[in-house]
Design a protein that fits this description.
Blueprint: H1 32-42, H2 55-65, E1 78-81, E2 91-94, H3 99-107, E3 112-115, H4 132-142, E4 146-149, H5 152-156, H6 161-168, E5 171-175, E6 178-179, E7 184-192, H7 196-205, E8 219-227, E9 244-256, H8 260-270, E10 277-283, E11 295-296, E12 298-307, H9 308-318, E13 326-329, E14 335-345, H10 350-356, E15 360-364, H11 368-376, E16 381-385, H12 387-391, H13 393-406, E17 410-412
Parallel strand pairs: 2-3, 2-17, 3-4, 14-15, 15-16
Antiparallel strand pairs: 1-4, 5-12, 6-11, 7-9, 7-10, 8-9, 12-14, 13-16
Length: 428
Amino acid sequence: MPGYIGHDWEPSCNSHAHHHRHGSANGHSLSYREAMADHSSRTSIPQFCSDQITVSQVRATLDQWYPPSLAESWDAPGLVCGDPDDTVKRIVCALEATDTVVDAAIEAHADMLVVHHPLLMRGATSVAADTPKGRIVHRLIRHRIALMSAHTNADAAVGGVNDVLARLLGVTVECPLEPAAQPVDLWGVQVPVDAAEALRNALFGAGAGQFDGYDLCSFESVGRGQFRPLSGSHPALGTTNQVETVEEVRIHVVAPAMMRSTIRKALVDAHPYEVPAYDVKTIDSGSRPGPATPGIGRIGHLDEPMTLRSFTQRVSERLPHTVWGVRTAGNPDQLITTVALCSGAGDSLLDAAAASGADVYLTSDLRHHPADEHLRANGPALIDTAHWASESPWCADVARRLHDELGLPCQDLGIRTDPWTIGTTVAQ
């Protein structure tokens, strides 16, 4: 069966699965075209296909990678249309759902279309078939194609749009440009001594115990628990209506607050008691941002210093070509070591880029006055790319990840949805 397909490339026919990242053997990033070809040639096809994978399961996978809680308040990611119980046998990806993209999804016999930009983000009072957005919704429903988007949640998530961009440009990420607010839960649970290790491992397996660049973190204290099982209870230890004392361990772990339901389920499933004793409180973790911290944009360093002119050339070569091209403001001979970047429109983060101490800030859709004022205030050099160019490499990445995770054919349609069609330069 066909597997992952990078745009403009044929599926592989190898029999063994390989997980491959952008980049060459020496750690240097490849061009966009090379990277996409590399994925297509090296990602092989699992020798199975489940008929039981549903829209709901694909949604759950995407939500795990790109948690909806990371989305900006004004954003509207998620499932736009489609029955969660429908079976998915083929997935296609694009930056946004346009008429051309929907045409290609229908031709590919896709059951699900995954995009970055939400179709209904700016609101709609009607999805009648004679409106531009309604026409797309109706066509998707008519052909039983579910539509799901991952937008600012995919921008902020670790391994999301910004990390794909950084990897493609040879930037080793150190931390997000604007870290996401992350409420942290402190869990405390009592458990018999002989069951403590199994419970601790279950909590770790559910995602607890990760903090500030470390994992498997916990603290425990030993004490004596007391309880009396009442009539109707089914105690794992003790006898009904008799006081029981047990040597117990109290285990403390931290976990992101957004994972509370997952951690609670793991705790209850692994605990030997009928009714586990535990408590949860939200705390200020005080953790410092790092590579595993979600947030908008990224700050990192180049594999080797280069001039602004040379880095601009790298950006031009490695991002997909657009008529917008790549524009740079700054001294061409300035030495670049540290890079701040933000995929998509990022002039709202000019102050954050200036405060980061980066040598250059790369983003899209920069406006004249904010850019000029930024430079006058001695902010870092600026590189302005086309919006579509900075975000579209994610489409191939998420297609590959879905293929590897679900074993389904997943294709980056590779359709250029950049609205600009003509670019000219004035003769000097």
